[in-house]
Amino acid sequence: MPHADAPPVFHAEGLTKKYGRRGKPALDDVNLTIPSGRVIGLVGPNGAGKSTLLHLACGLIEPTAGSLTVLGSPPAANATHLARVGFVAQNTPVYGSFSVAEHLKFGAKMNPAWDPALAERRIRQVGLNPGQKAGQLSGGQRAQLALTIAAAKRPELLIFDEPAAALDPLARKGFLRNLMEFVVELGASAVLSSHLLDDIEQVCDYLIVLCESRVQVAGDVRDLLARHARLVGPREGLDRLAPGVEVIRTEHRGHYSHSIVRTGAAPGPLPYVAERVSLEELVLAYMTRAATGYGSGMGAEAATDVWEARR
């Protein structure tokens, strides 16, 4: 497990990234500190800036403004720092003309801390044929190969940019199970970007909602769920909420309103009927608010459409 004084996984201050002089920022003034030792879910619609944030973290691109450190250092600061981070990009890219065994040999040459025993054991466990070309593998097999290569570096941080989005449910389940096994075995932190909330709920204990180029909410999943509630009551009662209760999204249904609210660390008694929120409700509430400026009147179906339209 990471040391108590371990630097944060990410620390961003005013982080901004623009593509082109007049384009809308892909990331806009992001301030974020992600603790070590967590499995972090990064969620949001396509175009929200998720891949941009991860590419910045890997040193593949540079920010337009602001700063970002990864494990306490600038991204890809040197060869040693590069070895501390394992990255699996979208579509889990591998070399189609290379065999599975050739991928492992290449990984060993490129990474000084390469663990051949771990790589070979994992290849056997997922049933990959060392002599088979990667171009002949199924999507799930390519994902497992890419995951093995990233983990055999023995990194302190594993970064996944929607690696399982194109996999069928069975292959995705296997990929996520192996992801968690690597996290435990390596004692590593992990960041998983996905628009599939089922994946996030299965493996992540920390959540970041990124929408409209900004972080909308971030925190421990259990704490976030404990600090939010769904209030159900007459429309006219919303103006009598207790101080410190923040309305995230409101949906009106006839004479009643359903509001997702944030109640703070130690909420007092809430008016009306207070119900627990699901992770999906929480995420959609913040996404709706970001997309509309304020989430009043947009139902869950419309909020889902906001997400689906950007995928």
From TrEMBL:
The entry's keywords: ATP-binding, Nucleotide-binding, Transport
One Pfam assignment: ABC_tran
Key word ATP-binding present: yes
Molecular functions per Gene Ontology: ATP binding; ATP hydrolysis activity
UniProt-listed CDD domains: ABC_DR_subfamily_A
InterPro entries per record: AAA+_ATPase, ABC_transporter-like_ATP-bd, ABC_Transporter_VariousFunc, P-loop_NTPase
Signal peptide: none
Keyword Electron transport belongs to the record: no
UniProt domain ABC transporter: residue ranges: 10-237
Name listed for the protein in its UniProt record: ABC transporter ATP-binding protein
